[in-house]
Amino acid sequence: MPGDLEHTYFSFATWQTRKSRTRLATVIHARVAFMANPPAGSTRTVQRRHFRWQRPGGSRGGTEVLRLRARAGGRRRARGRRRAEVPAVGDFEAAVMQPLQHVLRAQGPLRLGSVACVSWLPLKSCRGHSSRPSTACPSPERPQKDGVPKDFSTRLLTGPTFQHFLSSASAPQEKQPFPEAEDPPPYLTEDELLGRQRKVYLETYGCQMNVNDTEIAWSILQKSGYQRTSHLQEADVILLVTCSIREKAEQTIWNRLQQLKALKTKRPRSRVPLRIGILGCMAERLKEEILHREKTVDLLAGPDAYRDLPRLLAVAASGQQAANVLLSLDETYADVMPVQTSATATSAFVSIMRGCDNMCSYCIVPFTRGRERSRPVASILEEVRKLSEQGLKEVTLLGQNVNSFRDNSEVQFNNTTSTNLSRGFTTNYKTKQGGLRFAHLLDHVSRVDPEMRIRFTSPHPKDFPDEVLQLIHERDNICKQIHLPAQSGSSRILEAMRRGYSREAYMELIHHIRESIPGVSLSSDFIAGFCGETEEDHRQTVSLLREVQYNTGFLFAYSMRQKTRAYHRLQDDVPEKVKLRRLEELITVCREEATKANETAVGSAQLVLVEGFSKRSATDLCGRNDGNLKVIFPDTELEDAADPAARIRAQPGDYVLVKISSASSQTLKGRALCRTTLKDSSACVLPARAAGLQS
Fold first, then answer.
1. Could you tell me if 70 and 87 are in contact, meaning their C-beta atoms sit under 8 angstroms apart?
2. DSSP string of 236-258, one letter each residue
3. How far is CA 67 from CA 10, 34, 63, 95, 111, in A?
4. Rounded distance, CA 412 to CA 166, Å?
5. What is the mean pLDDT of residues 526-537?
6. Beta pairing class for 299-301 and 275-280
7. 516: cis peptide before it, omega within 30°?
8. What is the DSSP-derived secondary structure letter of residue 433?
9. CA-CA distance, 119 to 113, in Å (whole number)?
10. Residues 321/291, Cβ–Cβ less than 8 Å
């Protein structure tokens, strides 16, 4: 039997990839360090073992479950590599297969292409079966009494009790200020992982989560010695943070790669070679297709692999294509402080959770972002405090399902309390229990700085319990604006989308929100031309838009994505021309109703956070009100509420009361009355309105 298995490293590398119509197989090398009952004076030996990933099924519709097979035999040769003698298969399985399979299950489905060094996974120390103790990894001695070893039952009775574990769990643990630094992979030195002042150019496409991902990626690269540039021609590394939610978003990236290909070809030989990388959802979804179709691309990094960027860039610098698209069950980048990309920014995004468990039939997000996992509350509050100290005046809490937040890091809160869903809503997964929920987080974040506005996006309608709505109503610095994605106004289509609610339940929630938060601003998402949508279904969506009268809407034609439930089980049977016609109708109705809703603000005084000058006029300032609507007003001298005798000009980051004179579907216009604060704004609203009416 092999002895103590001290350290096991699995270096996933694909030098050879075989493809056929029915399978995709990739060779994986595993390096294992053994102490196999050595005689005195002998040294530790290194054994190698070859495995093979195999994905059964075809390229479409095939199962994503990967099987692991140990190749039998003692001595073999593998394409130019001499393989050391390995222990018997049964011994090897006892020592290696079990921990390896555990890691593979944790990592989830994996599909690899012909790339080098896809992932490096260090396993914690584990032990095999041995007849004698190991000096390298000593085993604890069994307790003895009068020289006689105790049997298992005796040791169990004299061991720790249940109360011991409870006290240990509740005992405060010392917080490490910095995470332990990981050792570099054995094929790279620490010097090779450094950026050496190479310049990085980052382009961001898609949603707010990608904006936050860009800041996280840059924070990691900055610590490794890279510099950032805003000029494409200066860049040594170009990274595109991509979106995969619709086909149009991906086509934009393909077109951009063609432009960058010419830049890479014309690069002078006197400079270091230009490296181009694809980050984010598109890297996760397309994987091999990008590397095979575009040789311009040097590296891929999925949404959970940004920590690996220095290694991927080091591998790419050697002339190989590098990729890490493994999804994680626990990666939240909680210890990474995002670096703000704009020095004059007044607001910031704070990611509080990642992934999605809802599995709506049309959505690719669970397959590109992975399962839901939330950051610890303490790390979120720390980031918000730092942003407040930097002078930022607005924070947006981000997540694919931001109000599904659940922090399970605190053991004492992992009770059996079930989730409170909105009335009439269901989930596609087993009801979750315990943890610190979104209401708790929102409460504590709003207390960090009373002068800092708090927003959150994007929520799911099912997770709006009364405590969240009451908190929004009570706190002045929590914006009275809620994004409530409907997707369709037809209950039949909502069922096909697996949204977990009907039109009636959604409308009941709308009425409840408006009763709980008077004057709340609402926005929503809609999809035109989903699978099986009829003209009657479309008319029901139009009627929902008119009935709710959203302040803002985000509308798109349906784009089928591979891997989704709709791709496998539904028919994309609505012609493209019909989709576009229905989309235009929805956009027209949405703008009409938004204009009506926004016109109710005319004559009122709105508290506006100034962001800077208007893009269309150098004499106008631009900002956003509590409902997240853009407000335009002239840049003139105005009164300061703290010092009425002083005349000042508003600056980015100031709160200004603006009397609204006109409204459209997307913007409000007015004139500034005075500069104020969040705390004093409610006291200033009535006098400001009176002054505006007198004028």
1. no
2. SEEEEEE--SSHHHHHHHHHHHH
3. 16, 25, 11, 18, 12
4. 9
5. 97
6. parallel
7. no
8. B
9. 12
10. yes
Residue owning tokens 């103790």: 133
User: What is the structure's pLDDT at 39?
Assistant: 44
What do you get for the CA distance between the two ends of the chain, in Å?
A: 93
Amino acid present at 405 = F
Strand (E) or helix (H) holding 166:
helix 162-170
Q: What pLDDT shows up at residue 624?
A: 96
DSSP codes, 23-89: -EEEEEEEEEEEE-SPPTT---EEEEEEEEEEE-S-SSS---PPEEEEPP-SS-EETTEE------H
For β-strands 17-19 and 4-12, DSSP reports them as: unpaired
Residue 174 has pLDDT above 50, yes or no: no
The mean-pLDDT minimum among 148-152, 273-277, 429-433, 618-622 falls in 148-152
Distance (Å, rounded) from C-alpha 611 to C-alpha 656?
A: 11
Q: 592: how many CB neighbours lie within 10 A of its CB? A: 14
Q: How many CB atoms lie within 10 A of CB 63?
A: 10
For residue 647, the cross-strand partners are 639
Q: How far apart are CA 408 and CA 433, in angstroms?
A: 10
148 pairs with which residues across the strands?
145
What are the contacts of 632-636 at 24+ separation with CB within 8 A? 632/667, 632/668, 632/669, 632/670, 633/608, 633/658, 633/669, 633/670, 633/671, 633/672, 634/671, 634/672, 636/671, 636/672
Q: Please, what is the Cα angle at 475 between 470 and 480, to 5 degrees?
A: 75
Provide DSSP, 315-327. HHHTT--EEE---
Amino acid at 558: Y
Q: H or E segment at 289?
A: helix 288-293
Quickly tell me which residue has 């949405």 as its tokens.
590
Q: Are 535 and 493 in contact (CB under 8 A)?
A: no
Q: How confident is the model at residue 682 (pLDDT cuts 50, 70, 90)?
A: low
- Closest C-alpha among 445, 448, 492, 497 to residue 471: 445
Q: Which residues contact 685 (CB under 8 A, 6 or more apart)?
A: 605, 607, 657
Could you tell me if residue 532 is left (phi over 0), alpha (psi between -120 and 50 degrees) or otherwise beta? Answer: left
Given the structure tokens 């590109």, which residue do they identify? 368
What is the distance between the alpha carbons of residues 526 and 556, in angstroms, rounded to a whole number?
6
CA atoms within 13 A on the CB side of 589: 20
Listed as own residue / partner, the contacts of 568-575 with beta carbons closer than 8 Å and 24 or more positions apart are 568/61, 569/361, 570/361, 570/496, 570/531, 570/532, 571/531, 571/532, 572/531, 573/531, 573/532, 574/529, 574/530, 574/531, 574/532, 574/533
* Predicted TM-score of the model (pTM): 0.72
The one-letter amino acid code at 62 reads G
Compute the distance between CA of residue 581 and CA of residue 571 in angstroms, rounded to an integer.
19
Tokens representing residue 574 in the block? 């609505």
Distance CA 594, CA 524 (A): 11
Plot region of 295 (φ>0 → left; ψ -120 to 50 → alpha; else → beta): alpha
- DSSP H helices in 451-607: 466-474, 491-497, 503-516, 535-548, 565-569, 576-599
Indicate the length of the chain as a whole number: 695
Report whether 456 contacts 396 (CB < 8 A). yes
User: Over the stretch 186-198, which tens digit does the pLDDT of each residue have?
Assistant: 666 776 778 778 9
